[in-house]
Design brief:
The complex is a heterodimer of chains A (657) and B (254). With 657 residues, chain A is α+β, with helices and mostly antiparallel strands. In chain A, strand 2 and strand 3 form a beta hairpin. Chain B has a single domain, classed as HUPs (Rossmann fold), CATH 3.40.50.620. The chains are: A alpha+beta (657), B alpha/beta (254). Chain A: Pathway: Lipid metabolism; mitochondrial fatty acid beta-oxidation.
């Protein structure tokens, strides 16, 4: 009976079997991410961060007995690529603060707010292009430079959630100060917190926590931005092994002109233990300006975050003691990715504060400005803007605290979600502030209103710490990798159909149903609050269809999927929308269950968001599955090629000259 | 001298909040409204901590009378540099009718119990504007008082106080133990830094009930009604002085 079922769906079998050879095992790397091109940032990122060589390729029989032969990841973002819903990290909305932590945090919020209200002058900092001296002193006294350093090393020992809450306040007042603080502790010395040995921590953290020493993160070079693996700064180990000689230059380093302690990434020549040939691998170092040979250039003139110091940093034959290596020699790329990954939630938290501030200005204006006889908040056009602004803020805020909550609960798999939150937050904040200026009209454009500065400050957030474009590729490729693993597992099962008949029958039925648009029993009922059932259903449908299109893309493109950036971008957009839907479902469910006063309002936000997000996802999926997408992408590519060949717009002037 | 200073700190509605009167006119809305330490109490704490930093006194004890949330106010005082706190628990109906008379009885009892050398209070609270607690406390203890202080200096067992009065400034010298009330220009309170807030977690707050101090909280006052000030009427522009006099006569002002 079962055999017949299997052979009847021969078409499906055939499709699965037609997977290009790379997926059928024999290669150590998982799924579709080819590692031959080791300079591909995204793939190395995926590999480095996931750091698991595909174990699925071997031991087929035993692995396949377990469902789908993939180590079950707890990450929601990973699961949707397989058309599944891993709810552990998203439902219920995490509440991770103990009573003591919550009380402590409450006490901190007041003074921080007060400081930024009364002492910090964002407009002044922007005009001076530096943080005023007395403000810097005040921030150091405040303890703002060592929020997450352990208390016994002069810090405040805050958890990620507590840190997020404070960084939210800073984001609402002054992003320039926010970056000065963030470049210092969120990335500047985070490496010491995450990878430092006890001696390094004891040596460096106390002065960094009080702000006596400022830190900077030095990765980017003139020829290496997104392609971080291609950096050229070198650190050559001395023959005696006691020190490294560092040579190279870094650009656009936040706090570069102020820092005493630098986390520097350089290429160290190493002998490959297997082949014996010399390879260049990245190593992370803690470099002190006092080592000598470290100089920094003048502050860069920027569009925004002017108060934050950005400078070039030069290393000229700097002697770095061997015990300043952070982590392992040759393990620097992983250190860099982990540092960036670890600090990403902070951005979403800060930007959610910035959005609150912009929204408050817009609301104040709309509620008081009268035109055509009514206050403008009565007009539909303004109402739509305000509603969208607040939805974007609600989603960002929910993402920030869900991720910080997951991290505080000990989750180890949050890199996709963190990347999603950075992409979402930076674009949402830009849109919200842009609309705020629009609502305020001419006033919004004026310096005194304070919003144009926020707009200028926000632009960099879509670029630094991993450009949104690269992060989208990362999200998509990471997801494809897990989906690819699953497919591989299934392929193994097909080699032994009798032994895996139950599994195969189930999988084939599932695919048949999904292709027909039918539900496969996946549901969020019982997980989301009953009042949100409809939105839950929309989300489930979208996830099911997403799973289908992912598999189709994998089968269609195979390993070449890594080059299909038009596809990857749209896939990432869907993943972002799906995560956003689930995050608001979780938050609104919690508010409803806890009977918050705002629960009905949050329900409205959630329903509205899910309606529109579901439409976007459906539209993208439709495009990806249609034949037209091929034509569209081909055209886009051709237009761009012509443009580059021509050095500018190709079409002649309408007037002929 | 014990070298101990008691500082009273009151939890009040934050000065920046827009006050709303309850629909039944029995009081103002306090639920869910932001509260903080009375600004004059902050100045009092700052002065006490300054005296300790100058080594003129030995210990600063922050006292607050009220419900559970008053502990937050005490913690702020601890974060500013007070050494320990005393929370006198008053809740419910008793808290609603708690006023200067009751608080001064409590302060007097505590001053005797703690053998205080000085009591420093804010000159008044920004919610009820009574400006009575300091004076009543001094009277109950039969201690000298230096109210509306804009400058305080200790000299042996005497205190020199510069007071802000209607006519200008008055300088007096009083013996300790004494009660002082802080006026606006006495000092500028420091910001509670986050590391100090963290250190304050380790400082103790003792819990005391008014009954333990032998204090009777019955109120001699009954609030009949609380209402908003009348809405400000729009002004009227007049062309000439005659018109102005005419209008004033019309409305019965002259």
């Amino acid at each position: 009976m079962l055999l017949r079922k299997v052979s009847q769906s021969s078409a499906l079998c055939g499709t699965i079997l037609r997977i290009p050879p790379v997926l059928s095992g024999g290669q150590r790397q998982a799924g579709v991410v080819a590692l031959q091109n080791s300079r591909l940032y995204a793939s190395e990122a995926a590999q480095a961060v996931l750091e698991k060589p595909a174990a699925v390729s071997s031991d087929a029989a035993t692995k396949v007995e377990n469902k789908a032969a993939v180590s079950e990841s707890k990450s929601f973002a990973v699961s949707i690529f397989k058309g599944q819903i891993a709810t552990a990290q998203v439902f219920p909305f995490p509440s991770v603060l103990s009573e003591e932590q919550e009380q402590f945090l409450r006490e901190l919020v007041g003074p921080v707010n007060k400081f930024f209200e009364e002492v910090n002058d964002a407009a002044k900092n922007d005009a001076l292009e530096k943080v005023e001296d007395h403000t810097m002193e005040g921030l150091k006294e405040m303890g703002a430079f060592g929020l997450q350093v352990p208390a016994d090393l002069n810090g405040l020992g805050l958890s990620n959630t507590q840190y997020a809450r404070l960084v939210e306040i800073v984001g609402g007042y002054d992003l320039g100060v926010g970056i000065t603080l963030g470049a210092h502790q969120s990335i500047g010395f985070k490496g010491i917190l995450l990878f430092g040995n006890p001696a390094q921590k004891e040596k460096y953290l106390p002065k960094l926590a009080t702000g006596e020493h400022i830190a900077a993160f030095c990765l980017t070079e003139p020829a290496s931005g997104s392609d971080a693996a291609s950096i050229k700064t070198t650190a050559v180990q001395s023959p005696c092994g006691q020190y490294f000689t560092l040579n190279g230059s870094k650009i656009w380093i936040s706090n570069g002109g102020l820092a005493e302690i630098f986390t520097v990434f350089a290429k160290t020549p190493m002998k490959d233990p297997k082949t014996g040939e010399m390879k260049d691998k990245i190593t992370a170092f803690v470099v002190e300006r006092s080592f000598g040979g470290v100089t920094s250039g003048p502050p860069e003139k920027k569009m925004g975050i002017k108060a934050s110091n950005t400078a070039e940093v030069y290393f000229d034959n700097v002697r770095v003691p061997a015990d300043c290596v952070l982590g392992e020699v040759g393990g620097g790329f992983k250190v860099a990715m982990n540092i960036l990954n670890n600090g990403r939630f902070g951005m979403a938290a800060a930007l959610s504060g910035t959005m609150k501030s912009s929204i408050a200005k817009a609301v104040d204006h709309a509620a008081n400005r009268t035109q055509f006889g009514s206050k403008i908040h009565n007009y539909g056009v303004i109402q739509e803007k305000m509603a969208r602004m607040t939805m974007l803020q609600y989603v960002t805020e929910s993402m920030a605290y869900m991720i910080s909550g997951n991290m505080d609960s000990g989750a180890t798999e949050f890199q996709i979600e963190a990347a999603i939150s950075k992409i979402f937050a930076s674009e949402a904040a830009w849109n919200v502030t842009d609309e705020c200026i629009q609502v305020m009209g001419g006033m919004g454009f004026m310096k005194d209103a304070g919003v144009e500065r926020i707009m200028r400050d926000l632009r960099i957030f879509r670029i630094f710490e991993g450009t949104n474009d690269i992060l989208r590729l990362f999200v998509a490729l990471n997801g494809f990798q897990s989906a690819g693993n699953q497919l591989k597992g299934l392929q193994k099962a097909l080699k032994n159909p009798l032994g895996n008949a139950g599994l195969l029958a189930g999988e084939i039925t599932k695919r048949a149903k999904r292709k027909a648009g039918l539900s496969t029993g996946l549901t969020l009922q019982g997980t989301v609050h009953p009042e949100l059932a409809q939105s839950g259903e929309l989300t489930v449908k979208a996830i099911e269809q997403f799973g289908v299109v992912i598999e189709e893309m994998l089968i269609k493109h195979g390993k070449k999927i890594i080059d299909e950036q038009f596809v990857l971008k749209r896939v990432a957009d869907c993943a972002i929308d799906l995560y956003a839907m689930v995050v608001v479902l979780s938050r609104a469910s919690r508010s409803l269950s806890q009977g918050h006063a705002s629960a009905q309002y949050e329900k409205m936000l959630c329903e509205t968001w899910c309606m529109e997000a579901s439409d976007r996802v459906t539209r993208d999926i439709k495009l990806l599955r249609s034949g037209e997408s091929r034509k569209l992408f081909k055209n886009l590519r051709a237009i761009s090629t012509a443009l580059v060949e021509n050095g500018g717009p190709v079409s002649p002037h309408p007037l002929g000259f | 001298m014990s070298g101990r200073v008691l500082v009273g700190v009151k939890r009040v509605i934050d000065y920046a909040v827009k006050i709303r009167v309850k629909p039944d006119n029995s009081g103002v809305v306090t639920d869910g409204v932001k509260h903080s330490m009375n600004p004059f109490c902050e100045i009092a704490v700052e002065e006490a901590v300054k005296l300790k930093e100058k080594k003129l006194i030995k210990e600063v004890v922050a006292v607050s009378c009220g419900p559970q949330q008053s502990q937050e106010t005490i913690r702020t005082a601890l974060a500013m540099g007070a050494d320990r706190g005393i929370h006198v628990e008053v809740a419910g109906k008793d808290y609603e009718t708690l006023g200067p008379l009751q608080v001064s009885k409590i302060m007097a009892a505590l001053a005797k119990k703690e053998d205080a050398q000085l009591i420093i209070l804010g000159k008044q609270a920004i919610d009820d504007d009574c400006n009575q607690t300091g004076q009543m406390t001094a009277a109950l203890l039969d201690w000298p008082q230096g109210t509306f202080a804009s400058e305080v200096s200790l000299d042996g067992d005497k205190v020199k106080v510069v007071r802000e009065i209607d006519g200008g400034l008055e300088t007096i010298k009083i013996s300790t133990p004494a009660v002082l009330t802080a006026d606006l220009r006495l000092n500028t309170p420091r910001y509670a830094t986050l590391p100090n807030i963290m250190k304050a977690k380790k400082k103790k707050i003792a819990n005391v009930k008014p009954a333990d101090l032998g204090v009777d909280l019955t109120s001699r006052l009954e609030v009949l009604k609380v209402e908003e000030p009348p809405q400000r009427q729009a002004g009227v522009k007049v062309e000439t002085v005659e018109d102005l006099v005419g209008k004033l006569k019309e409305t019965g002002r002259i």
